[in-house]
Design brief:
12 strands; eight-stranded mixed β-sheet; binds aspartic acid; four-stranded antiparallel β-sheet
């Protein structure tokens, strides 16, 4: 199989918050207006997370704040704007983790929680558990006083058109969900969101939130709420958030594998991320990306797709946002 790989970005130093908005479409599939709108949301998310850090908040606060902005944007596949399952519903997954005591929380398959990342944080802070799914997670979120919405809140025209195209293709016997490189590949089909942060005390945190994959089976859970797959943080190495074809990320334990390579092989965050994404994931036939921030403030991205919506902000407040391979 021929798999096209992309070079990773140059590492950035002195970063306090890095984010991704998932795999981007091919450049020609993104209109100038969409391009501008995505850049604006990513910039807003960076500023919101940085504001938390500037106010003395923790890396967890920064991750949660940045992800909430992206969840509330209909442009990205998390919270409002999530993709549809094969039976036309939105089922959301999210997780958050800190790298000092390795506390973590996650929710999966939720349908009425406006900000799944905040529910994941509540699982971490206010329950003895790590991962709650479905109705149990929703009852817990309600008891915690989180924002509960009608499932229709998550509906967007663009996502609805996507699932209809998929149903139409299936009716005509064309089979399963479009692969990342299909001509039909649009940003809405991927665009999971994530964040990694480092606070004044050097504590790392990571979080990821998603609607999953268009046309996924109901009840299917991807890598985003699975610690060690889509999200991981370890102050001794790095904070990681991933996006891509979740089944591969779960099987390769991508985010933990990056941390493990740093700790046990002694390689840099960039070398570890590239080994896992460019070599292991690519060899397995999986598509996707990881963002990673190490304890020294070095931020790297690695992806084997055409583009990745991503951004980072330094301690001094310099924000960078990129959508493609430039
Ligand atoms: N990783 C997510 C999932 O498989 C989807 C994505 O990142 O695009 O659920």
């Amino acid at each position: 199989m021929t798999v096209q790989t992309r070079a990773a970005d140059q590492p950035m130093d002195d970063v306090v918050l890095g984010i991704h908005g998932g795999i981007s479409p091919r450049r020609q599939d993104l209109s100038p207006e969409e391009d501008q709108a995505v850049r604006a949301v990513l910039t807003e998310a960076l500023r919101a997370g940085k504001a938390k850090l500037d106010a003395g908040g923790s890396s967890l606060d920064a991750v949660e704040a940045a992800i909430r902005i992206m969840e509330d944007s209909p442009l990205l596949n998390a919270g409002k704007g999530a993709v549809f399952t094969c039976d036309g519903r939105n089922e959301l997954d999210a997780s958050i983790m800190e790298g000092t005591a390795k506390r973590a929380g996650a929710v999966a398959g939720v349908t009425v929680i406006r900000n799944p990342i905040t529910a994941a944080r509540a699982v971490m802070d206010k329950s003895p558990h790590v991962l709650l799914v479905g109705r149990g997670a929703e009852i817990f979120a309600t008891q915690q006083g989180l924002d509960i919405v009608d499932p229709a809140y998550f509906w967007t025209e663009a996502r609805w058109r996507e699932i209809q195209r998929l149903w139409e293709a299936e009716k005509q016997g064309q089979g399963a969900a479009p692969a990342p490189d299909d001509a039909d590949h649009k940003p809405q089909e991927y665009s999971t969101v994530g964040a990694v942060a480092r606070d004044a005390e050097g504590r790392l945190a990571a979080g990821t939130s998603t609607g999953g994959r268009t046309g996924k089976a109901f009840g299917r859970i991807g890598d985003s709420p699975i610690l060690g797959a889509g999200t991981y943080a370890d102050d001794a190495a790095a904070a990681i958030s991933c996006t891509g074809h979740g089944e591969y990320f779960i099987r390769l334990a991508v985010s933990h594998e990056i941390v493990a390579q740093m700790k046990y092989r002694g390689v840099s965050v960039g070398a570890a991320a590239d080994d896992v994404i460019q070599r292991q994931l690519t060899a397995a036939g999986g598509k996707g990306a990881a963002i990673a921030l190490d304890r020294a403030g070095r931020f790297v991205t690695s992806y084997n797709t055409e583009g990745l919506f991503r951004g980072a902000i330094t301690k001094s407040g310099e924000a960078t946002v990129r959508l493609f391979g430039d």
